[in-house]
Amino acid sequence: MNHLKSLLAASVCLTAIGGSALADKLPPEKDLSGLEYELIGRTDLYDYRALDSYSEAPFLADMAAEGKLPAVKDRLPKEPLVFKTGAMVDGTGEYGGVFHHVIGGRPEGWNWLAGQHQGWGGINMAIQECLVRQGPRWQIKGEDQTGPLPNLAKSWSWNDDNTQLTMHLIEGAHWSDGDPFDTEDIRFWWEDNVEDENVSSRLSKGSLAPGAKLEILDEYTFRWTFSEPQSETLVENLAYIQGCPGPSHALKDKHPKYNPDATYESYTNAMPGEALPVPVMGAWVPVLHKPDELVVMRRNPFYWKVDEKGQQLPYFNEMHFRLSTWDDRTTQAVAGSGDFSNMENPANYVAALKQSQSPDSPVTVRFGKRALAWRLELNFSDIGAEDEVDLALRDLFRNKDFRIALSHALDRDAIGQAVARGPFAYPYTGGFTSGSAFFDHDSTAYQPFDQAKANAMLDELGLQDSDGNGIRNLPNGGDDIEIDVIFNSGRNETRKQLDAVISQLGEVGIRVIARGLDKTNFETARLGGAFNGMINRRGFPTLTREPCNNMPISESCPFFHQSQNGERSLLPFEEEIQAAYRTFISSNDNAEKLQMTRDIQRLITENAYVIGTIQTPAALLVNRRIKNAHPGTPVYMFEWAEDGIIRERLWTPAAEQVKELLPGTIAEY
Ligand code: GLA
Fold it and tell me: Ligand 1 center to residue 280 CA distance, Å?
């Protein structure tokens, strides 16, 4: 795959950094992918322009004729986003039918501005539209990989010294309830959510760039001024899940700044799970939520994207999210009752592959590169520490030798085999996954399985088993070293890894206690930084995708080292990571940028900033009825496949469409 070629081409003039100095190297990897497809130019996917005429789903046309909706041309923006036919593998589509998702998550609520998630698995992304878009970038050729694709921001420009970024919104678009979408939504998102530290915004205050100040220039134009020059890379931070404005008209009077009776808690819960519909910019509007069962979405009559025939998108009238388990997503996709799955539990791979190879299988299966990775995170901050033992543990976690010792104690081959027999797993070191375009073998330090070394290092740290019970004690004969590790109990593949980790660390005298939490409690603990240890799946495909997961780029990042009451002392290597990230975001020199990705990879892996376990490929499962699903769509590259596959452009021929649950309806506000 040659995306990011221009950036990577710069690598020839760089010597491998640190590579030869690293004692331990990852073994060579066997690649399971191999699909070839043609990459396209940056403007081949879509542009923005007015077409001579527009058409719409027949039932909407009827509603417009009856005066229940404005005419389609008045609902669309002045220049809608137009998907080009040349980039559609099956061409323009037919209206109607249902697209079935199955997900393991549950909607926490609909106020994404306050950080609430809607259950993942493509449900957040179905309603949130963001300033720019990353998902479909996997299809763009290297020389055009200049930055993210436009979306709600149809264009943007920099001033001469790159200290000002001016963005232009699509003009005349509407929220799904008909309210105009404009810079008031941008102002509210930024000032009253991102910049308000009482709101858990997904873009954290201070993380976009130093000194970022927003100015609204007119209804559709706004500008950031930064205290230092930045680069186009910064704009990637304004894609899903960080750069997605919400309906200011629905939320403002729920926010404490505008409503003296509101609290931040009531604001966060201002759009609770079952109170539907809510106004969205996405292609489908949630209209029905049966807890633990189903979310039904209906097409958004104000959606602002069309095809080249002028047909308003999406093609599917209805989208379902069956609320089940992540493993069931794959089971149902294989059986044909679900239309889509990112097959990501390696335990399912062999059986799913076998079934899908039968000639009458309803599903196509495509494996991609190793992009899914799991890791143990140890909390460097004292947040949430309940007693002296917790504080002593956190001290140990800040000690590099302790982390390296733990890393050497892990037998990653055994962890991989515990998850699934077969050639799927590969050791993970932290940092970029091996399937990432930025992965560089020579910049990757690896601590291979070496129990003797782990024991020697732990002895050296003075962590003896002073009471002879098989568990090492905290320095000076203190309590047993018992690390409680939280995990998302909905993830079987994580649980299996944790079981292996518990037994392997037990062998070097460290006791790990598993603490399963449901997804919502798990996320609350993760984002709030209140845990001792955590094991979790966390990919690392690019530096700009949710950087707060990985690097100390603002006071509340990474989640495992947040500042407490405005205070924190970063370790020297963390300062180096922070500086390298800032250079990466702001530099316009490709060779320098590439060097930064390598420095960060080296710093993370040499210091065992997180302790990687394994990485695996994932496979994308799509029902054969679904048209326009490009076979090259990766499960996880710039963004998850639900974004990369461009669902607003998917369709099913009328004869194969599945009956809608709520035919002829739209969200009623
Ligand atoms: C979950 C799933 C992923 C993907 C994402 C999308 O994390 O496990 O496969 O669907 O949601 O947000």
Answer: 20
